[in-house]
Design a protein that fits this description.
The protein has about 325 residues and is mainly beta. The strands form five sheets. Strands 4, 6, 12, 14, 15, 17, 18, 20 and 21 form a nine-stranded mixed β-sheet that branches. A four-stranded antiparallel β-sheet has the order 11-13-19-16, with no helix packed on it. It has a three-stranded mixed β-sheet with strand order 1-3-2, covered by helices on one side. The longest helix is centred in the N-terminal third of the chain and has 14 residues. The protein starts with 6 loop residues before the first strand and ends in a 7-residue tail after the last strand.
Length: about 325
Amino acid sequence: MTGPGPSVTEVDSDASAKADGDTVSAAVSGAVVFDRSKNGDGESTGAVTSSTSWTPPACYYAPKYTPKEIEAQMRQVWESSAPSHEWALASQNYFVNGDPYKDFNKDKEGKGYWWDSYVTEGREADPAAQDCDKEPFWVDEGDAPPADVPQAITAETLAQLAYAEIRVPSTKIDLAPEGTTKVNLPTWAWLDTAKFKPVSVTASVPLLGLSATTTAEPVSLKIAPGTDDAVTYPASGECEIRNGRIGEPYATGKAGDTPPCGVKYLRSSGAGSYQLQAVVTWRISWTSSTGQGGDLPDGTFGADQDVVVQEIQAVNR
């Protein structure tokens, strides 16, 4: 146990509680609700990855119990599965006997909530999830959580949690020629911009009337030919979105033009193929019900596709 009370770190779907070592796991519903109605959809969507080492928080504190709910949880633990007699006495002092709370704060029923830790889905094995080891604490309705709890949920925390829920379309690009191209022949590349539009996820804590919306907007396409024996258009391989589109579809009569986005292979792929990688960069920003907002690190999402490159066959006469 990290303090005089229990550390509640696991969430389930029923109303039971149990003790495992010094950790009490409580079965309650989560505080954060996600609205994914404006997210990317379809079978080929995927999560964006931060272009830096930044990640959304692995754990956070938010409202979890009313006084009656935490009393029911704790009394069940004390009666059936408390890890030790000493732990039971310490936690009873913490919640019931005035050190620092009395009778689970039942005199404040409807006037606030017990806050406790939540682990972000998918981060259960992350060591950072253990940082939220503070025992449950009380926050009066309308008050800010204690200043010494840096992981207490905020609008920006919600924006970061929403970031992890963003899903964007696959980055399989259209090529001309398609599938098979020729050595020294510029291959045009473009994306269906109807699929590449801003997407967003809203995360909220209804109990607090707090919400934040995180939006991902496509800004560029990075092409990696899959071999050093190639040149890209532009030379950086970074195709920016212009006039609402990435690249430009090939059209009859443009054979002699340089594509605004594309690749030219300088050597045949032989009996195999090159793995062309296309990665879209998404600019991430957020707004919130508090009026706060800003930018989060750019996200990327990419995919590979096979490109067969053949030598141009000359006919001798």
